[in-house]
Write a structure and sequence with these properties.
The protein contains no helices and 39 strands. With 465 residues, the protein is mainly β. The radius of gyration is 22 Å and the shape is globular.
Length: 465
C-alpha cells in the first residue's frame, strides 16, 4: 500500500525555518521511501545549504506501507486458541486485529536471530538459515546466501557483508561476486559480535572481536576506507565476552560481558569508537540491542536486567551519551524473557520485543518512557521466537514451535491508517511554527515521530522532542 500526500513546506527568515505549512492541495507530489520525510529545496537535498531565500516549496510525504497496530498500554490478555496458519496464507490474529502468515514449509528453517536483519534494505529479499533466500512475497528464489556471520547492507539491497575466519568480505547476492575486503593477520579468528554484532547504519564501521591466542582484542574497522581505526587488548579470556557491537551512529562500542557485576569486563560497558572506556551501562548483561530513542539519542535497550538494583524483571533503556536510565515497560507481568531488536533502522524511536516468559507476544515499545506499545501478535511458541522487525518496522518476522515443529512466520497490521506516531496528518491544512532550526554542513533533515520532530541523518535532534 502506497499513500501519497501533496504538501508544501514554507521556509522564511534567512538560515532558519520559521514555519512549516502543510497543505494537501499544493500540487507537489514526489515519492519518498519508508515513511521518512526528506527535506528538499526545489527537489535538491539541502545538504549544508543556507536558506538565503524567503520562500521555498518543498515536497513532503510518501508512506510506503506504513501501517502499525494502534498505540496502547500493555496489559496481559488470554492467548487465543488459533489454528496454525497455512503456508503463505494471511490469517487473522483474533486478539489484536493483525495478520499472521507462515513463510516456510521445512521444519527448522527460520531466520537467524533477533538482531540479524532478515530483510535487505528495500525489503525485496529475505535471508533465512541454510542459505535460503526469499523474494518479497516470501517465495524461495535461491540458496546462495553466504554462511557464517552475514549482515545485509543498510544502503545497497544487493550487498551483504560476511565475516568468516579472519576475513571480512563484501558479497553481491545478485551477481555472486564476493570480494575480500581485508584479512586480519595475527588472529586465530575474528567475529562480528560474536554473532550479535551489527554495522553502523551508514555501513561505514563494524566492531570485530579478535581471538588472539585465546585472549580478546577488539577491532574498530572502517569498511569505507578499509582501515583499522582502533584496537584494544581487553585482557582476560576471549570467552569473557558475550558480544560486542558498534552503535548505529558508529560513535560508540558496546560490550556485553558474560560475568555480571560492576567490575572490569563485567555487565555492559561502553567505549567510544577509539576504544576509550566511557562508563558502565548496566551491571547485568541480558538480551539487548542498540537504537535511537524518540528524541534522537542513542540508547541501549535491555530486557529484565535488574539494573543497579532498582529495576528488576522490566525493560529499560540507557542513553549512551550520559548513562541516563529510563524504564520503558514495567515488571507487573511477572518478569520478561525473550529478545530485543532495534533493527528497525528506518523507524527510530521504537524497539521490538519478542516476549517468551509472561505475555508471549511480539510487540513494539516506544522509546520515550510513556510505556506505549504496539501489539502485533501472540507467537504461540514455547521457545523464544527471536522476533526481528523489518527495516521500516511494519512487519515482524519470528520463529514459532506452534503445533510442535518450528517454522518461520510474519505478522503485520493490515489497513489504511498509519500510526499517529509515524506520519504528519495531512487531511486539512495546518501551520506549525518552528523556530531556531538550522542545518550544519553536510546534514539533511528527516521528519519522524509525530511529524513535528526533525532529526539529521546522523541522528542529531534538530527540532522537537
Amino acid at each position: 500500500m502506497d499513500i501519497y500526500s501533496r504538501t508544501i513546506i514554507q521556509f522564511t527568515g534567512g538560515a532558519m525555518i520559521t514555519k512549516l505549512l502543510l497543505h494537501p492541495n499544493s500540487g507537489c507530489q514526489v515519492p519518498l521511501h519508508s515513511g521518512y520525510i526528506w527535506i528538499k529545496a526545489r527537489g535538491i537535498p539541502m545538504v549544508g545549504r543556507r536558506m538565503s531565500f524567503l520562500l521555498v516549496f518543498v515536497l513532503v510525504c510518501h508512506i510506503y506501507g506504513q501501517t502499525y497496530p494502534p498505540d496502547v498500554s500493555l496489559s496481559k490478555v488470554q492467548i487465543p486458541s488459533m489454528t496454525q496458519p497455512a503456508y503463505l496464507v494471511a490469517t487473522n490474529e483474533p486478539t489484536f486485529g493483525t495478520k499472521i502468515m507462515r513463510i516456510t514449509t521445512t521444519a527448522g528453517l527460520t531466520h537467524y536471530y533477533a538482531k540479524d536483519q532478515p530483510w535487505n534494505c528495500t525489503m525485496t529479499r529475505v535471508k533465512l538459515t541454510r542459505g535460503v533466500l526469499l523474494d518479497k512475497s516470501y517465495k524461495q528464489i535461491g540458496t546462495n546466501v553466504p554462511g557464517d556471520e552475514t549482515r545485509w547492507s543498510n544502503l545497497d539491497p544487493d550487498i551483504m557483508f560476511q565475516v568468516t575466519g579472519t576475513t571480512i568480505r563484501k558479497c553481491n547476492i545478485s551477481t555472486g561476486n564476493n570480494q575480500t575486503l581485508r584479512t586480519f593477520s595475527g588472529y586465530t579468528s575474528v567475529y562480528l559480535g560474536p554473532w550479535e554484532g551489527n554495522l553502523s547504519k551508514d555501513d561505514k564501521r563494524a566492531v570485530l572481536a579478535g581471538n588472539k591466542g585465546g585472549t580478546l582484542e577488539l577491532i574498530v574497522y572502517n569498511i569505507e576506507t578499509n582501515t583499522v581505526e582502533a584496537t584494544k587488548s581487553m585482557g582476560g579470556s576471549f570467552d569473557d565476552l558475550d558480544w560486542a557491537t558498534i552503535s548505529q551512529s558508529g560513535n560508540y562500542v558496546i560490550c556485553n560481558w558474560n560475568t555480571n557485576g560492576s567490575g572490569t569486563r563485567q555487565g555492559v560497558e561502553l567505549y567510544d569508537r577509539n576504544l576509550n572506556f566511557l562508563r558502565q551501562l548496566l551491571v547485568t548483561g541480558e538480551h539487548a540491542d542498540a537504537g535511537y530513542d524518540s528524541r534522537g539519542n542513542e540508547v541501549y535497550v535491555s530486557l529484565t536486567c535488574g539494573e543497579r538494583s532498582r529495576y528488576n524483571a522490566e525493560i529499560v533503556m540507557v542513553r549512551l551519551d550520559n548513562g541516563e536510565l529510563t524504564r520503558i515497560v514495567d515488571g507487573s507481568f511477572g518478569g520478561f524473557g525473550g529478545h530485543v531488536s532495534c533493527r528497525n533502522v528506518k523507524r527510530p524511536g521504537w524497539a521490538y520485543i519478542s516476549e517468551a516468559n509472561s505475555i508471549y507476544e511480539c510487540f513494539a515499545v516506544k522509546l520515550d518512557g510513556s510505556m506505549t506499545v504496539e501489539r502485533f501478535a501472540h507467537h504461540h511458541s514455547v521457545a523464544s521466537p527471536i522476533g526481528c522487525p523489518s527495516p521500516d518496522g511494519t512487519i515482524i518476522l519470528f520463529a514459532s514451535d506452534w503445533g510442535g515443529s518450528t517454522y518461520c512466520y510474519v505478522t503485520w497490521k493490515d489497513g489504511p491508517t498509519a500510526s499517529k506516531n509515524d506520519c504528519i496528518p495531512m487531511l486539512t491544512p495546518a501551520v506549525h511554527p518552528i523556530y531556531g532550526l538550522h542545518f550544519n554542513k553536510g546534514e539533511t533533515g528527516i521528519f519522524v515521530g509525530n511529524g513535528r520532530t526533525l532529526y539529521s541523518l546522523s541522528g542529531r535532534l534538530m527540532h522537537g522532542r
